[in-house]
Specification:
single chain, Four Helix Bundle (Hemerythrin (Met), subunit A), Rossmann fold, six-stranded mixed sheet, 12 strands, about 20% strand, GTP-bd_TrmE_N, TrmE/GcvT-like, tRNA processing
């Protein structure tokens, strides 16, 4: 019998209300410890929590969730108390003195939910992302995963592979049974080709999901005095970087997180790119180039009339936008057509168009009905493994049927590792139910 765990599940005090969660087989001991009756399950009840001496500790809302119909699948209890530090400390202290009770470890409630089959790994990861979501798109992506939408897609794919394997195994091992049709394995390959196409397209969405979850990394680069720091301050709508007319003012990488139309944008201001004998400035330029290599988008700034971008030798997969700056100081006729956009950070000219350019590659996501995309590298790696094994099963037409079935088994395991649920009984269940084998 495992320990019963408890923890403060709401935000840091002080607060209007604090929620303390308890989970475990002995959770109902809380009622005796505080001198209160249990009440009706899953119904909020007002109770007077008492100290060991019978004095009033606090008035609370108490809700019980009997197993298995709870978040963790165990007996669960929630105490909604006043959110003062002294009240929280007193309640936690009383819980710690109950036999077999202990403070929960980080993520332990969610881990018990997974172990008891209440959530799979994809849903657990989505829940973690939902807690940390800071933008609307991050929230929508996390909700899709934590609510089981993405898992449902993976389970549907797993069922298609399981059925294909069942047909192949039936032909290999039970061909002498009267109710097993001969040469049924050829029926599975067209469906698996369609599945491979579906998974490949799904995997391609992983890049967009990564940008939504981790933020679009935008690096502002260019020569000194091109207006990099001024642009960063204007986009951030506050003074993040020091702005002077002295070349080389910015010597380190400055960073600010922005919310643009619900997307997280990680904006970096970097040192001006030039040759210099200043040792400290060279360090800043080296750091700038490292950050450029990591960027999703590079905003390369040049004052209108200059073209220092052609002198740079960037080896990067990032999208590069050549921006002409200080448009307010130049006549419209002087604006070079080689720039993707000309702006003035001082007047705000072109900044709305710049925001549209930054989000042009990911903005369509906001119009989707669902956010069923692999958001984590662990998920994407399992999908890559699945695509590889599924592809081998399809192209190895000269191999024996049992070899191709082995590739399908490995593809199925990749999906099972995705959700954290590996059960060979699924395969046996399909064989016995569909072909009456072993009747």
């Amino acid at each position: 019998m495992r320990d019963t765990i408890f923890a403060l599940s709401s935000g840091a005090p002080p607060a209007g209300v604090a929620v303390i969660r308890v989970s475990g087989t002995q959770a109902w001991q809380v009622f005796q410890a505080f001198g209160i009756s249990q009440g009706v399950a899953r119904r909020a009840t007002r109770r007077r929590l008492l100290t060991d001496d019978g004095d009033l500790l606090d008035e609370a809302i108490v809700i019980s969730f009997p197993a298995p119909y709870s978040f963790t699948g165990e007996n669960c209890l929630e105490l909604q108390i006043h959110g003062g530090r002294a009240v929280i400390s007193a309640v936690l202290g009383r819980l710690s003195r109950i036999a077999s009770f202990r403070l929960a470890e980080a993520g332990e409630f969610s881990r018990r939910a997974f172990e008891n089959g209440k959530m799979d790994l994809v849903e657990i990861e989505g829940l973690a992302d939902l807690i940390h979501a800071e933008t609307e798109m991050q929230r929508r992506l996390a909700v899709e995963q934590s609510s089981g939408g993405l898992s449902a897609l993976y389970y549907a794919w797993a069922d298609r592979i399981t059925r294909a394997r069942a047909l192949i195994e039936a032909e290999l091992d039970f061909a002498d049974e009267d109710d097993i049709p001969g040469s049924v394995s050829h029926l599975v390959w067209p469906d698996l080709e369609g599945l491979l196409l579906d998974v490949t397209r799904h995997l391609e969405d992983g890049r967009t999901a990564e940008i939504i979850r981790d933020g679009l990394k935008v690096v502002i680069a260019g020569p000194p005095n091109a207006g990099k720091s001024t642009l960063m301050n204007r986009l951030a709508e506050r003074d993040v970087a020091i702005v002077t007319d002295v070349a080389g003012t910015t010597r380190d990488v400055l960073h600010v997180d922005l919310d643009m139309d619900g997307f997280s944008v990680r904006l970096y201001d970097t040192a001006g790119l030039r040759s210099t004998d200043d040792r400290i400035e060279r360090i800043g330029i080296d750091r700038a180039r490292i950050k450029i290599d990591e960027a999703d988008i590079i905003l390369y700034l040049d004052e209108i009339g200059n073209d220092s971008l052609s002198k740079q030798n960037f080896v990067t997969q990032a999208k590069i936008l050549h921006i002409g700056t200080q448009a307010d100081r130049h006549r419209q006729d002087d604006v070079a057509t080689s720039y993707d956009l000309h702006i003035s950070a001082a007047t705000g000219q072109g900044l709305a168009e710049l925001r549209q350019l930054l989000l042009s590659d990911v903005g369509f996501i906001g119009e989707r009905a669902a956010f069923s995309m692999p958001a984590r590298e662990r998920q994407r790696q399992n999908l890559r493994n699945m695509v590889e094994d599924l592809g081998l099963a399809l192209i190895k037409t000269n191999e024996s049927l049992d070899i191709r079935a082995e590739y399908l088994r490995r593809a199925s395991q990749a999906l099972e590792r995705m959700t954290g649920r590996i059960d060979v009984e699924d395969l046996l269940g399909v064989i016995f139910s569909e072909f009456c084998v072993g009747k």
